[in-house]
From TrEMBL:
Domain PurE: from-to ranges: 124-256
GO molecular function: hydrolase activity
GO biological process: 'de novo' IMP biosynthetic process
PANTHER family according to UniProt: PHOSPHORIBOSYLAMINOIMIDAZOLE CARBOXYLASE-RELATED (PTHR43064), SLL1489 PROTEIN (PTHR43064:SF1)
SMART domains in alphabetical order: AIRC
Name of protein: Pyridinium-3,5-biscarboxylic acid mononucleotide synthase
Amino acid sequence: MNKANRKEQILELLKCVKDGQVSPDDALLRMQTAPFEDLGYANIDYHRGLRQGTGEVIYGQNKTPVQIRNIIFNMLDKGSNNIIITRISRQTADFLIKQKINLEYHHIAKLAVAERDSRTQRVGSMVIASGGTSDIPICEEAAITAEILGSLVIRLYDVGVAGLHRLLSQQNILAKARVIVTVAGMEGALASVIGGLVSCPVIAVPTSIGYGSNFNGLSALLAMLNSCANGISVVNIDNGFGAGYIANRINKMETI
C-alpha cells in the first residue's frame, strides 16, 4: 500500500468519526492495526509508535548497509525520528552518513540513532550497574537506548561482587532509582545482590563475558533466573537493548 492510499484511508476513517459512523475507540483500534510497508526484504511497521509508544527499531546485524539505508529513508519519509539501529558496525554507520542521513553513532554500544530529536527530555531515575569493565558495551547499549527514549540514566560501572564495597558505597543512588539494570557475566551474582538491597524493579542482563565454564553467558543466565531475590526479571544474554527498552517503560510509568 503506497503513502497516498494510506493517507486517503486515514482521512476517510476520520470523516466517519466526525459523521458519527465510527466511534473514536473503534477508529483508534483500526489505526493501531493499520498497514505496514513491504520493501521485499523488510515489512516496516509505521504504527508501532501508536500501539506501543515507540517506533520500530532496526536490528542492524546481518542486514546490508543498503537495506538499512532504504529502511531509514522510508521511515524518515513517513516523519519518523529517533530511529534506533542496534548492532551496527562503524563501516555501516560511515556508509549511512555518506548517504546524507543525520546519524549519531555510538561505537562502544554499536548503536546508532538517525534524526535524533534533541527536544526529548529525560525523566525519572534509571540506574545501570555493571559487574565489570568488560560488560560496558552491553551497558551502553541499554543506557543509550533508554536515553534516546527519554529516561535519565545514571551509570555505575565496575561495581561487581569481587569488591562489594564499591557497590555499597553507591547505596544512596540505588535507593533513589525507579528501576535498575544490572549487567554481569561470570557467575552473574550482581543481580541478586542489588535485588536484595533495593525496592524498585531490577532488570538483569547476563553477558557472554567469562571463562570457559561461563558457556558464553549461560551460567550467568541460569544464575539470574534462579535468583532468590524478589523483584528481578531477566532478559536474554547480551540483550542490552531489550533491558534498556523495558526499563525505560517502567521508568516512564513511575513518573506519570
